[in-house]
Amino acid sequence: MKKSSPSFLSCFTLAALAVCAASPVWAAKPPDYASSAMTGGSYALVSGDYHSRIWERVPEGEKNKGKVNTNLPPPTEQACIGRAGVTVTVSKPCTLTSWLHRALDGTTVWKKGGSMYLSGSFYGVRGAKAVGTFSMLDGGALTVNAGFMLSGQTFIDSSTGVFDQKGGDVTINGSFLGLTGPYILSNSTGAVGIYNLSGGNLNIVSERVRTFCGIINGVGKGTFNWTGGVLNATFLSEDLVNNGGQFNPGGREKIGETKLESEQARTYTQKKKGSLGIDIAGTSKFDRIIWTDKSKNSAFVFEDGALIEPNLLGGHKPTPNRGFAVVTADKIRVEGDLEIAGSFAKDFSWEIEERKGQQVLRLVYTPGKGGGKLEGK
């Protein structure tokens, strides 16, 4: 695995420690914000739409008075849920530096037309024994330009964060999706982070390789449940199970590449009805997955009933028997029937070749004769 630059690690860790030093240690009961010194920002004190009067703005170092007195958080500051049991609904576009829950039983809901743009980080749930839920419905959007930490940002945060994505778009531009914090010296081993992807699009598209990249379980208890929706990731670094969604480098109808960055063996497992979406726009323009590691033992596994969905873009029509090397892995295993699905199912077949100690899955253009394994292979 490539190592990230010292500046990223040091900056991220120092930032986490700084937030820890500035934040109070919470008890299991809801915190008394009226008497607590807080970091600066806006605090939602009652339930309601993000764009309604639910906020109190607290300057850096001052105390929260516990009274709603302002309309909207400034786009240059962070905002958070600041009272137990509060639900904030995002139904229109908003811009912030960061978003988090600083209270027990907080809920954020994104609805159709509701988008949140974070120039900084998504910090998820903060606090001792705090529980928070984030729900992305049929047309919401969340864009994060820095880190995404669902739970356990600092070592005092023995919290539980649950993110349910049933639709909409979540895009992480600057770093990884941390189910819990990955740094043993500054993040909590008691944190729980659960991401349920059942619809919509999840894009983790940082172009720079980090020490941690893709979807990270972290030092706490991280779980990624993938039963639907589309995953597009530039880099991945841990085991991944596709139990009914679509893995599509670049996202649907866009050309992209996904690369495994790991020093140890990792396994991608695609179960029945799980799909691998491959877009093809030209002889050398098609989706690629490179699933190899330094130990040369990583595996790409298709279980019985797994699907591959090729898609031709822009009217491209390959010459017959033209092959596309879409997956290169240390090992590729097909356990049962691997089916070609989608609008171009009858025009493509698949085969596996050996190349320089690795295995390559090729899609072969066989117009009118496809749907499964290439005949004679």
What is the number of helices? 1
Q: What integer value in Å does the Rg equal?
A: 22 Å
Mean pLDDT metric? 89
Characterize the largest beta sheet: strand count, sense, and whether it forms a barrel: 14 strands, parallel
- Strand content is 35-45%
Quaternary state of this entry equals single chain
Tell me the distance between the termini: 34 Å
By secondary-structure content and strand pairing, the structural class works out as mainly beta
Helical content band: under 10%
Task: Return residue spans where pLDDT drops below 50 for at least 5 consecutive residues.
Answer: 1-30, 32-37
Number of strands: 32
- Shape call: elongated
Key words describing this protein structure:
single chain; 377 residues; 14-stranded parallel sheet; 6-stranded mixed sheet
Write the layout of secondary structure elements.
Blueprint: H1 6-22, E1 41-44, E2 48-49, E3 55-58, E4 79-81, E5 87-90, E6 94-96, E7 99-101, E8 106-110, E9 115-118, E10 122-125, E11 131-136, E12 141-144, E13 148-149, E14 160-172, E15 177-178, E16 192-204, E17 215-216, E18 221-233, E19 235-236, E20 240-242, E21 246-247, E22 257-260, E23 267-270, E24 275-280, E25 288-291, E26 299-303, E27 306-312, E28 323-329, E29 331-335, E30 338-340, E31 348-355, E32 358-365
Parallel strand pairs: 1-4, 2-5, 4-7, 5-8, 6-9, 7-10, 8-11, 9-12, 11-14, 12-14, 13-15, 14-16, 15-17, 16-18, 18-21, 19-22, 20-23, 21-24, 22-25, 23-26, 24-27, 25-28, 26-29, 27-30
Antiparallel strand pairs: 1-3, 28-32, 31-32
